[in-house]
């Protein structure tokens, strides 16, 4: 397995496909290739030894003070190998380097996010998220038991 690295233009199709593999179950929001292309600088990936993308994560900015960790996806053949935690760490590192004071995520993976230093948060703290969910899908907000997590990024 290769280290976490920035995505490349030629990864757009693979990133959309990996992310969308989980959208039917409500685990991820559907991502178009256009979304991926417009966020390429915000994606981090893990490749297998053959160079194929097997994991990804993306930052989605709401404002200069708030960013969401989105599109966390790992190929099922590579589950339980610590790739999700490595991708979350890479997203947190990128958010810190971009000077965001806080990062949040909405996910079913409670244990994973808590192991990565995130704490449970009431999603109503982020009305921007609710507004985006409403634009994407009226029922996306209530699918399953997704929980919100945040992590302060102040380096001092």
Q: Which labels suit this protein?
A:
Aminopeptidase, globular, alpha+beta, 7 strands, 5 helices
Commentary on this structure:
The chain has 156 residues and is an alpha+beta fold. It has a single domain, classed as Gcn5-related N-acetyltransferase (GNAT) (Aminopeptidase). It is 29% helix and 27% strand. The chain is built from five helices and seven strands. A seven-stranded mixed β-sheet has the order 1-2-3-4-5-7-6, with helices on both faces. Helix 3 links the parallel strand 4 and strand 5 (102-107). It is globular and about 40 Å long. The protein starts with a strand and ends with a strand.
SS strand fraction: 25-35%
Number of helices: 5
Q: Please provide the count of β strands.
A: 7
Helix content: 25-40%
Task: Please give the alpha-carbon distance between the first and last residues.
Answer: 33 Å
Please give the order of strands in the largest beta sheet.
1-2-3-4-5-7-6
Outline the low-pLDDT stretches.
Answer: none
User: SSE order, as H and E?
Assistant: EHHEEEHEHEHE
Q: Give the CATH class.
A: Alpha Beta
Mean pLDDT over all positions: 89
């Amino acid at each position: 397995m290769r280290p976490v690295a920035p995505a490349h233009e030629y990864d757009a199709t693979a990133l959309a496909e990996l992310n969308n593999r989980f959208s039917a179950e409500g685990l991820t929001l559907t991502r178009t290739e256009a979304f991926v292309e417009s966020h390429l600088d915000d994606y981090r990936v893990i490749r297998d030894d053959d160079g194929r993308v097997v994991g990804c994560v993306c930052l989605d900015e709401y404002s200069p003070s708030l960013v969401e960790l989105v599109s966390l996806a790992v190929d099922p053949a590579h589950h339980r190998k610590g790739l999700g935690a490595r991708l979350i760490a890479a997203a947190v590192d990128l958010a810190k380097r971009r000077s965001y004071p806080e990062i949040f995520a909405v996910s079913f993976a409670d244990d994973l996010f808590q192991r990565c230093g995130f704490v449970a948060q009431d999603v109503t703290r982020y009305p921007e998220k609710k507004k985006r969910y409403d634009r994407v899908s009226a029922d996306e907000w209530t699918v399953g038991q997704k929980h919100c997590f945040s992590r302060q990024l102040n380096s001092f």
